[in-house]
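for the record, two folds in this file. i put them one after another cuz i was lazy. first one right below, seq on top, structure tokens after. the second one comes after a little note so u can tell where it starts
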Amino acid sequence: MSKEAVDKSPKALLESAELMLKSDVGLTFDLLSKIEAQLTLLSIEQKLKYYYLLSESYSTSGQFISAAQTLDTALTLAKKLASPSVIICDLLYLRGYAAESLGDTSLAVEYYKKGLEVAESLHDKVMIANGLINLGAIAYITDDYKRALILLNDAYKIAAQTNDDQLKGYSNVELGIAYANLGQNEQSMVYYKQAYEYFKKSGMLLAAHNALNNIAMNYSVNKQYNEAISAYQEIISTSNEHSPAEIMYRVFSGMAWAQFRKEESDPEKAYEYFLKAEKYIDTIQRHDIKLQFYFDQAFVLFHLKRYQDTLVSIAEAEKLLVNHDSLPFFQKQANLGIINLKSKVYYEQKRFKEAYEAKSKLVFLREQLHENEDKKSVAEVRLSLESEQADLKNKLLENEKTINQENLAEAQFANKEQQLYLSIGALVALALAWILAKLLYSQRQLKLASTIDTLTGIENRRSLMKKSAQAFKLAKKKHHCFSVLVIDIDRFKNINDTLGHSQGDVVLKEVVQLSESMMRKSDVFGRLGGEEFMVCLPKQDLQSAIYIAERIRERIAEKQWPLRNITQVTVSIGVASLASDSDLNTLVQRADKLLYKAKLSGRNKVCSS
């Protein structure tokens, strides 16, 4: 650091730090440390700028907890400002990014929306576009690709109207990532390359490295491994000792995969690069990056036949995947990969029972993932977008047709009596249509009332037994597996007596929601009566049914209940699978007896035949 830099005023140091942040985080921290000693000399706006640059430096270095703490201090100070300003937008967006990087997408959305509100109140196009980019990124992270593309394309259009190369770079990067997740790698590459050029043009070396890293990953996806290696080597050659840990981690782990997957695969060299990547992993606070590292490392170790080391890496990955059901779609897929790899390791170690159990779990979770109707596949999203564009064109054509028809009608029916006649006819038609709509709605409500339990929203006893009997009959005919769970809430009478029936109803509904989240679309779930429920599981053998029952029991037992005098609610479950049963009632009775056995053995248990 030169003497001239040391002698600069706090304001001048702030300007230097802002410029330095584009290319060297280490020197930025040095400049900011000099400003810290002179904070009392700064205005509120200058202090906020200092906190923003410090938080940005922490974020660039992957220190998101420190970034969040610094931003909380800055946002408290920002309340002293007389009116909203752009710096508040910057702080809110950066606070959202810290939350996003620490895995709290809900909190991230909250801050992003607050920042966007401020930007809109200031009518600042650049800050509005930044807000849309942030929310668009959250959308694709949470598998809402339709919303992601709408938000990101809006930001892209705004950026195109400005001279802000940095904004153009970021809008291109995020669109590239969204299209990459949709499997449209050619379109993704176009955006990545545009982003790289914009970042280079604006002197943003670190952002350019990130864009180049995305380009390299895209090459790898397209199996152009030599091109990927060249891109990674370019980043390595232009990096320095202060290059952010996250960027260098991505470069070395990407290089490892390219070495592993290229035509002349080199697993040993790939592992060497993973060891280089591992040096950065402890300083990275991003949940998704750590997960990917341990999975990648385990995969390479498996191919090197280092099976015990593979299990160690798998265990680290599993610590980051505590609750499979609450994970976003892409992390659920990663979890399936980890379970599959574990089953292969057990098989190679001749631990066949454990290999079978892992494979059974994999089959169940894979079916659950693909049969969940609330999760649209990437292909469905793409078809939906194409369909909407076609619908839009059709609407435009229909509007033109309507205008022409209206013009024709005016010419044909100039006579007032004819117009009156047509008006009366239209009113009669509308009235009939309204009556018909009401009848159809009433019929639908009547049908729902006859099949749905009004309190919990699941099948009532009559509908449950009817659908289960049909599934049972089909299983007998096709010689498929078929299992039944009978679930009862433990000591439910005490809950009603202690808290009242209204709170008891709350418990019933919550137990239903927790249980339902464990099930597939093809499962039949309903209320037998009171606090007793039944699930029929087509194509599930006894072992799979026990696994599902244990998942339901654990999920409910782990739930934190904010109720007076109630800290835990548990269930007991009886599990029976189709054997020589002649009808559904016989099978249900067996499950019911096993439920009674679970109650007698201490409750909060699963008993099976």
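(here's the note) second protein begins now
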Amino acid sequence: MDQLAVARQSFDRHNWTECYLTLSAADARTPLDADDLQRLASVAHLLGREPESLDAWTRAYGALAEAGAAPRAARCAFWLAFQLFNAGEHARGGGWLTRAQRLVEGLDCGDRGYVLCAAAHQTLAMGDPAGAYAMFGEAMELGERFGERTLYALATLGRGQAAVVLGRTDEAMGLLDEVMVTVTADEVAPVIAGLAYCAVIIVCQETFDLRRANEWTNALSQWCEVQPDVVAYRGLCLVHRAEVMQLHGAWSDALAEAGRAAERLSDPPRQEAVGMALYVLAELHRLRGEWPEAEDLYRQANRSGRHPQPGLALLRLAEGRVDAATSGIKRALDEAASPLDRAKLLPAAVEVLLAAGDLQAASSAADELTAIAEQLDRPYLTTVAAHSTGAVLLAEGNGRAALTELRTACSGWQELQAPYGVGRARVLLALACRAAGDEEGCEFELDAARDCFEQLGAAPDLARLPVVAAGPQCGLTAREVEVLALLATGATNRAIATELVISEKTVARHVSNIFAKLDLSSRAGATAYAYEHGLA
């Protein structure tokens, strides 16, 4: 059997390395024809050999254009534009897209559908989701009519992404599920299969559909395992796996996986997804109390294009820099326009604003989060909204109402198999039990929370538990307990602000909240209360 026959069989078996080596060797002896050049271009891309892939596509384009096969040449130009856009080379990609559009202008063929998809993605990026949605629909029709399954899947994927931007989430999920049926059945080109896995997972995460995100992440992992030499998409696969591991409490495994993802996505450099991996690493270090490492990684993620919020605000809060946390999360919210973007920030905003003593703003943020959760009807969002609402009710002194919300949140976290969420909800449940006069219930919830945090290695949360356990029976927040303890030493608001690295204005808000919750009118009364309850 000659080399080309071996290479073609290797391509059909998805043995990408053998195919690449065999085709390269054959090409070195006798230049490949257009069909084999396209195979070479595809496998080179999957193996992470982008320069070789682009060279093969360019040569295939030249051969087809010279032969007068304009539609097929246009498809090669599409793949060149596709890969160049993904590499961030928008000028070169735009040039190839323009060439492809000129070649299929006025033609009724499947190749025009590929060009339409590329143009539709540009239209979507320019802020016209309705226009992109229509263009993807036209490409879907061409794919169906000409029996082009890869084109149909690519166009359906794009239409689903446009539907998300248009706020038609249920329709989008239906479209994306349809794409994944064709992908898992191995009915599309491998390059599009990898792209579809990653794009669908990202959309699921963006819309808080964690069930689908977990399902497709597992499928992507299996897809990569049966093709061990694939480089393209493997880094993103590791990022998604790390995010799933983080949610499910396997933090050490998640750190290793995210580290491998960051390494893979850094070679070649300037890959946009590297910021995602760095942000996951930063989050894990923050949760474990490794704050200098977390700050450095948030900075690296920001340089790579991943906004460091809300993680950075939560880091500042953990460090006691409440003012920095407040200004950071407020700025991020001001820049977030869509409900989906705001929903990613609002839980952290509630936590930060409560620590700052701004109950009104925290309550507004929790109400907005609840409204978004009701609209999207996603278990994760419903759980986070109940958690945030319970925290606000507790801070307002309404312990009994808080209990209802927090039990809903605790059950939701358990169903999501998210132990860190369970632990944090149990801490708030303990305070709500105490506010309702149930000291034994408070003790039970704190014991359960301690078990969660110990198993996870959540050092900062473990360190805060003694403060919560010694707290008064009035629903004071952990920060308010700290302020009360310092106030009882005779410290002024300025001295307390210096000690806790917050502003005097924030201290004054905390003192006012303490007086209101404890029904006190003076610092002397607050000092007496602190000594009576073992807080001084």
